[in-house]
Design a protein that fits this description.
Helices cover 48% and strands 0% of the residues. The chain is an all-alpha fold. The protein folds into two domains: 40 residues, no CATH class; 55 residues, no CATH class. Helix 2 packs across helix 3. The longest helix is centred in the C-terminal third of the chain and has 23 residues.
């Protein structure tokens, strides 16, 4: 991508609603109680956990060689917890 076409960090923060309390970003409709960009309050470890889960969910990719049985237990726990939370959020949304 042409570097001239990339958004500045300030523009990215504006688009993601990182600096305001009011969130009108459609990307967060799954969690309307979140009123600002999650990047402003999630820890680096939480983002890494989400990345592992999204990689597993979307691409069946795991962080270490081998299958699920070859992963450290914490990888399994991340996938289990994130899957549970996603299912709960989607079920709650479906009830509305």
């Amino acid at each position: 991508m042409d570097p001239e076409l990339r958004l500045s960090d300030a523009d990215k923060r504006r688009v993601r609603n990182c600096d305001n309390e009011d969130n009108r970003n459609f990307a967060l409709l799954w969690a309307p109680e979140v009123k600002r960009c999650p990047k402003t309050f999630l820890t680096a470890d939480a983002w890494e956990a989400l990345r592992i889960w999204f990689d597993w969910r979307d691409f069946q990719a795991l962080p270490f060689d081998g299958g699920m049985n070859d992963q450290p237990m914490w990888v399994y726990e991340i996938i289990q917890l994130c899957t549970y939370e996603a299912n709960e959020a989607f079920a709650k949304k479906a009830e509305e």
